[in-house]
Design goal:
mainly alpha; 72% helix
Length: 96
């Protein structure tokens, strides 16, 4: 294994050690992290497909169930669809 990868692996291990200091996460923090990931999953997935919703718009659509003025319903439904997909991934324990 090259030194570049060894250095990167050591860096990742050190960062994981920092995160492990906070484990187990409180239920509140775990919920916040899941929602953060849900929003990020929906936003980035949609952005890759050309959906112009901003991350903040995506958050409003998913968390508050509000439509964004001037945005086509198709784009809003894409955000909701990605959110639903994330829920299924959690349900089937594909993601932790």
């Amino acid at each position: 294994m090259s030194n570049i990868y060894k250095d990167r692996n050591q860096e990742v291990d050190a960062l994981k050690g920092e995160i492990d200091k906070y484990c187990p996460f409180s239920k509140e923090l775990e919920k916040e992290l899941r929602e953060y990931c849900r929003i990020g999953f929906a936003y980035t997935g949609n952005a890759l497909e050309g959906n112009p919703l901003a991350e903040s718009d995506t958050k409003v659509v998913i968390e508050d169930g509000l439509a964004i003025c001037g945005k086509p319903i198709r784009e809003i439904n894409e955000a909701l669809g990605h959110s639903d997909a994330y829920t299924l991934l959690e349900k089937f324990q594909i993601i932790a």
